[in-house]
Amino acid sequence: MERRSFLPRSSSLSTLLPTSDEKYYLPRSVQQKRRFKLRTLLGHCFYRRVILWILAALALLILGLSTTSENGLRRERLLELVQSRPYEETHDVSEHVVEEEAIVTGSRREKVMVVTSSEKAPPPAWREGMPYWLRFKHLDGFFVGLKALVPAREYQPEHPRKPGEGSPFPLTISYTGLPTPTPYVPHPDYESEKYTAEHHEAQPCYLDKAKQIPVPEVYAYDGIIQGQSEPVLGSHNLLGLRDDVCFDRFGRYGPYGLGYTFEEGGVEVGMDTERTGNEVVWEKTGKINYDTIDWAEAQARCLDANKKRFRDPADKDQPSTTTSSGKGSGSGKAKQDGSKQGAQEDPTFVHSERPKKKIGRTAVVVRAYTGYQWTHHAVLNFRAMISELSLRSGGEYTVHFLLHVRDGNEAIWADPITAQRILDDNIPPEFHGLCTMWSEDQMRLIYPGGFGRSFSNPSSGSIHGVYRSAHMPLQYFALNHPEYDHFWNWELDMRWLGNYYELFDRLGNWGREQSRVGAWERSSKYYIPRYHGDWANFTSLVHNETAASGRPAVFGPVSFPGRVPLRSEASGESFIPRSCATRADPSCGVGEDADLITLNPLFDAEDSGWVFASDVTGYNTALPPPPRRCAIVTASRLSRRLLGVMHEENWRLHNSMFTEMFPASVALHRGLKAVYAPHPVFVDREWELAAVDKAFNGGRDHTSGGRGSPFDLRNEHNHKGTSWYYHSEFAGLLWRRWLGYAQYDGRGPNGGRSGEGTLRGGKVEEERASSTGRMCLRSMLVHPIKWEHPSELEDL
Ligand SMILES: *[C@@H]1O[C@H](CO)[C@@H](O)[C@H](O)[C@H]1NC(C)=O
Ligand SMILES: *[C@@H]1O[C@H](CO)[C@@H](O)[C@H](O)[C@H]1NC(C)=O
């Protein structure tokens, strides 16, 4: 991509900075109260990082002599922006289901507890019109606490179970005391001989300029809570994610400020929850004072120290791998973590004076928007993301906020003071330097001209609007950032319960190892390990089903009436690697980075009943619409070349499709490598596995697409009890219980739904002597998290 021609405003604007008007770079007056209503609309924005660094440097320079007052102001600024009120559980939590007795074995005083189900009413008989899944009983194991931690080999899941296997409930647990967590490091061992033999040395990074504050480690417990369910959709093991450890709230977020006061530099949330034995997470680093941290500067310093490890975008010939995958060294006796080196070993360089491998870099682009109500929990989440992905990887990843300025009347391009005001009003100061602003008007400028008719436009939105074309600003962002090979599109209301590096690194590795043969067909189906068997069996099953369907498997670019070639296609280039000489060779695409990694299946939108399936623009409406694939939830990794092709489809061919459908369909049309990564998704009920398969793979030819799709408006309710879907009810409930706040458990006489049932969990319940303690969950993605602290409910 010719980036030069698209650089509108970096150096020119920095010369406009009024160097003497320092007061404009101070945080806004703390007296001025501002409240933002949380809006669920997705948002975004564009600004030059360089300028912000200059701004931040200026502010620091000027305020150099009065750092304490600056810190105070920063803190108050943050408080003003996020405002969380003190919270007390006003409802008495329900009666307990735990009985306890103490037994003395020798000198050891061991306690034994019996945990029974809290389902008050038996599951109702199915009635006409009632969603099928509501007839299944709720699962209890998620909510059992740390006293029930057992080694992985003793673990027995409540669900799914093999036929004939009994439920571990009522659960009998015996314990002598709370277990202790240990640091959890999923990064490669950068100091190992193996690593340094192949890669340039990694320099450690720090939170501060003086290199006094090391980046903390997350803590995990070695083991699993007895009886907790396994994921039903997807798998830890398949993707190389550890499934033999669990995380509690303090191990996960304590290092970033959960559980200690503002005076100590924390965010003060989590102190209103049960917290026995949480001090251990601060033993190594102390309670870190985050008041003065500037994350953009920390990332820049880290990258600078590690520059030579990474591929230089100007040098195309360097050997490169996308990640520096190595063996994680998590707590305890780590079992093989599944991350493989295989595909990256290049025998060409295995002799004495071999050049060291350079690593490709990845941007994580978080879609922020003006009006978003920041909270302390959200701040913690992004501190964790930056620390784990960027600072602890020595700059392999960089986190950016693409800030959508929704008011088109704001002169963000003309006036740096306006831009600064928007940051002050909308983004916590510690993240200002990560922001790039954009607006829909800007997209009209970048992608001018008529886009032609749409087959349908159910939302009646503009083609340049964020709702229908959320990727436009990401495409433009990629053009302006040639230093990255891949771009994660991420949203504010997603959380990863675990270490972010483990998630993104393993997904990238897994995507690279996948064959292109049958990839579109496998990706169109939810993988249910306990039902489909291992991945080889699943691959064989999909192969057989495809053969039985009578439809040819997708391989390479698809042709369709009215297809217009890309410029590269017209000049004879192709995205198909040389290893793909025949469409039967399973090594085709193995070792090739995926252009698109999605977190839900890539389903055929045709006849799927998905509301926006025909929101297709720019193609000849006299012909049938082109073939389409779609993945719900826009969180996904896109390669530079995929974004480049989408850019050309937009500006040159004036082709577009509804947001969730555009990247996948472009990849399909142009022969790019796309995979759905079956990450672990949990369900709240004891589904029969055949029913899971029927509900989630009930589309055409046993896929998730076409007629009968789970994404049909009438079928989407099936996702409400899962941990990952845009309208999931379970994700928020589980997450807030894990954070330590009482929630209505959703268990009621009509099968139970969100908001029904009894108030369970929270401080009062978890602190009772008869409680099993605070929750500890295996790693998982949760979405949507619309609120976290109970006081936020009043703002909704
Ligand atoms: C392979 O998959 C089929 C179809 O889902 C299933 O019936 C069979 O039990 C699986 N085999 C194994 C070994 O898991
Ligand atoms: C697919 O078909 C082959 C040949 O009929 C059979 O051997 C194999 O077991 C089938 N795979 C699955 C998972 O059913």
Describe the protein.
The protein has 796 residues and is of the alpha+beta class. 24% of the residues lie in helices and 12% in strands. It has 21 helices and 25 strands. Strands 13-12-11-14-20-16-22 form a seven-stranded mixed sheet, sandwiched between helices. It has a three-stranded antiparallel sheet with strand order 1-2-4, with no helix packed on it. A three-stranded antiparallel sheet has the order 5-6-8. The longest helix is centred in the first third of the chain and has 16 residues, at 67-82. The two termini are 43 Å apart. Mean pLDDT is 86; it is low at 1-52, 63-68 and 319-352. One 2-acetamido-2-deoxy-beta-D-glucopyranose binds at residues 537, 540-541, 544. Keywords: Membrane, Transmembrane, Transmembrane helix. Residues 307-318 have a biased composition (Basic and acidic residues). Residues 307-355, 749-771 are annotated as: Disordered.
Molecules bound to protein: 2-acetamido-2-deoxy-beta-D-glucopyranose
**What is the first-to-last residue Cα distance?**
43 Å
Give me the secondary-structure category: alpha+beta
Instruction: Determine the mean pLDDT.
Output: 86
How many strand segments? 25
Radius of gyration: 26 Å
Biggest sheet, open or closed, and with what strands and sense?
Answer: 7 strands, mixed
Low-confidence sequence ranges: 1-52, 63-68, 319-352
The general outline is globular
Percent strand equals 5-15%
